[in-house]
């Protein structure tokens, strides 16, 4: 049955009280079409209820098809909406309506996750507990976090969302449809470090220089990080936390940090 107009009962109540349709329109502030259609249906049917069966019966989104889709998703939830619609010979919009409106399901992208061994999980848990303890003594406010990033001149794009609107393929090509990729694009290594309230100027490493433990100690720690901390922290205690790059976790780098820095978080 079609949904009833919320003003229909008020219209018919006034009509039975012998109020003219024009006055009903003025009193309720409803369109004249609504008033006259309600009075016409009342005279024809003898009731203010709507006519049964006015809406077209569903031929695609039926209870049987809803149940079939529910059974499929229960057996295997990793499914393609397009393929399910094709297999059941219905449109994709109908399949989306069944999943979203009838079954209250939402389509999520499958994500990636790393599976850790028991030893790695235990080690990471211990490190997390130690880091949490440092926050209680506010050591995280004087911790310097360092990192290196290889930046290339190659354009970034997402093949799923990167679109070009054009009338022809040639026009799209000229407007940036094709993004060229190179096996070894021009790049530069950038080093930076920061704490809770300050950060170092960026250090750009030449492309031909490979960051090994010797270069990391001489070019980054000695010439960049240590002078910056001595100037900005002004003899206040601070702590260094590095990432897991090979040059940072090398035994020689760890020994140098332990000898020359006030405090640092070792790799182990």
TrEMBL record:
Places the protein is found: Nucleus
Q: Provide the protein name.
A: Tc1-like transposase DDE domain-containing protein
* A GO molecular function held by the record: nucleic acid binding
* Alphabetical list of SUPFAM superfamilies matching this protein: Homeodomain-like (SSF46689)
Q: Name one GO cellular component term.
A: nucleus
């Amino acid at each position: 049955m079609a949904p009833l107009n919320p003003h229909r009962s008020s219209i018919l109540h006034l009509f039975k009280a012998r109020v003219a349709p024009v006055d009903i329109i003025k009193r309720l502030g409803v369109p004249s079409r609504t008033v006259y259609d309600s009075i016409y249906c009342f005279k024809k049917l003898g009731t203010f209820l709507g006519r049964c069966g006015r809406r077209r019966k569903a031929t695609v989104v039926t209870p049987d098809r809803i149940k079939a889709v529910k059974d499929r998703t229960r057996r295997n939830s990793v499914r393609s909406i397009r393929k399910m619609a094709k297999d059941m010979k219905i449109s994709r919009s109908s399949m989306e309506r069944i999943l979203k409106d009838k079954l209250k399901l939402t389509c999520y992208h499958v994500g990636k996750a790393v599976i850790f061994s028991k030893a790695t999980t235990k080690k990471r848990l211990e490190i997390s507990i130690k880091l949490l303890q440092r926050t209680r003594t506010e050591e995280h406010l004087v911790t310097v976090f360092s990192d290196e990033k290889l930046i290339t001149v190659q354009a970034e794009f997402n093949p799923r969302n990167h679109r070009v609107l054009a009338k022809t393929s040639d026009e799209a090509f000229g407007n940036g449809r094709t993004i060229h990729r190179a096996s070894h694009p021009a790049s530069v290594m950038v080093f930076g470090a920061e704490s809770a309230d300050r950060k170092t100027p960026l250090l750009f490493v030449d492309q031909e220089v490979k960051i090994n433990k010797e270069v990391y100690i001489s070019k980054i720690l000695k010439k960049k990080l240590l002078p910056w901390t001595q100037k900005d922290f002004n003899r206040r205690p601070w702590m260094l936390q590095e990432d897991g790059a090979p040059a940072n976790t090398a035994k020689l780098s760890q020994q140098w940090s332990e000898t020359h820095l006030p405090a640092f978080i070792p790799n182990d």
